[in-house]
Amino acid sequence: MEKNVKAPEKPPYGIIAVLLVGAFIAFLNNTLLNIALPTIMADLKVEATTVQWLTTGFMLVSGVMIPLSAYLIQKYSVRRLFIIAMGLFTAGTILAGAAHVFPLLLAGRMIQASGTAIMMPLLMNVMLISFPIEKRGTAMGVFGLVLMFAPAIGPTLSGWIIEHYDWRMLFHFVTPIAAIVLLLGSILLKDKKEKVSMRLDVISLTLSSIGFGGLLYGFSSAGSKGWDSPNVYVTLTIGTVSLVTFILRQLRQEKPMLNFRIYQYPMFALSSVISMIVTMAMFSGMLLLPIYVQTIRGISPIDAGLLLLPGAIVMAVMSPVTGRLFDKFGGRLLAIIGLAITLITSYYFSQLSLETTYTQLVILYTIRMLGMSMVNMPVSTNGLNQLPVKYYPHGTAMNNTMQQVSGAIGTALLVTVMSTRAKSYGTELAADAFKQAAAAGKAVTPAAKAEMEQQIAMQAMLHGINDAFFVTVILTAIALVLAFFIKRATQAEDTIGKKVPAKKHSQKLANN
Predict the structure, then answer these.
(1) Which of 162, 306, 386, 450 lies 20 to 30 Å from 76, alpha-carbon distance?
(2) How confident is the model over 162-179, as pLDDT tens digits?
(3) CA 364 to CA 120: how far, in whole Å?
(4) Helical segments of 226-357, H only
């Protein structure tokens, strides 16, 4: 029965437009705060380890809320969920903009995250059920424009606002737009949903919250605290045990909160792995490049943000184009070409030096974003296309959850590689420098020693960044090999229910 469900003849463009604007504002907010963190530290008198919770806390809430979104999408109407999501986001934005102490700012940020975590799976699910498979690539390309362009322009916009206004203007700027979108959504969205008798499994919710939250916190903390910190390995252990228990519980339930059986569909499973690797590779550019240009090269925050802007524009322009190409050629060709471009540019980023010019960085990053734009949405859409309609909410929730987890893992992995390799290189370079000075019979003055240590620290950090980029080369190479196994997906039958006797299965579908 489920395989015969068709997309409506005329997609609900009004609903999609409202959702897209709401999602754009929510996604834009994700990266607006990054360049403002030093200013917030100085204004609210907090340390770097504390201010990082504005990012880590956002990821934690998203990791906890996204698995719940599959249940919410199935139980409630689009209108109701949109109002809840935008209402939470708007309330959090107002609270953060009024904050004069850090705990209030953090609370506002986490409330924002709870709304954003609902918005993304909701929009993706509406896109999937509104367009037939043969037109879905183009539709998801437009969605990709919002998904990629909004957070990409965040650093540039943030740098300009911080340079001219107080950091709170980042929230004051978003508040009226979010309020207008919330008002328009409550007026224009008219969809109704039949009452669905679904009960929230509190035990599953608790296990998923501890599991995903523990993993995200542990991996996010590893970069700064080190893998040998009790805060890291104890949290990771608790998170892993809780997550395994959660998965086993979902596999035993008839109506799971998050259906892990969808990984029985090969194209979805393959797309999920590739998307996770690409997310980790993408974080390398977003994380390591700003450190390189600001810390090592001394480039200003506004110029660091502008460096990323051409890549964001290319990704935004290419997203609808790759959507159309996906409809025509499928995901395999696009993924292979895109990952090959990403692999080559990642290798060049692993060869950075103190002489690498600003123009070279802009061109290299822009080409890298071109490659990634050919991978992200086509691969994800191809995987979702194989799922029966009833599993769309689970597929979108699973993809978004895995992106949060892979983003946290990628960040922790790359920061750890960068810091450990930089420390190792620093020790070696310092030993060599002092040996050469001793061999030459030169006395090292305190001023010369300080200057030498500063130069060594910069060189060591540069080597550490290059090694971290090389890790992304290896990861991208794995994704490229996997891309050769992609096939154009067609909507599958509900193979998850195959073992159920025919009579019982028909009754089960009727109940759904």
Answers:
(1) 386
(2) 878 888 898 998 899 899
(3) 30
(4) 230-252, 266-291, 301-329, 331-349
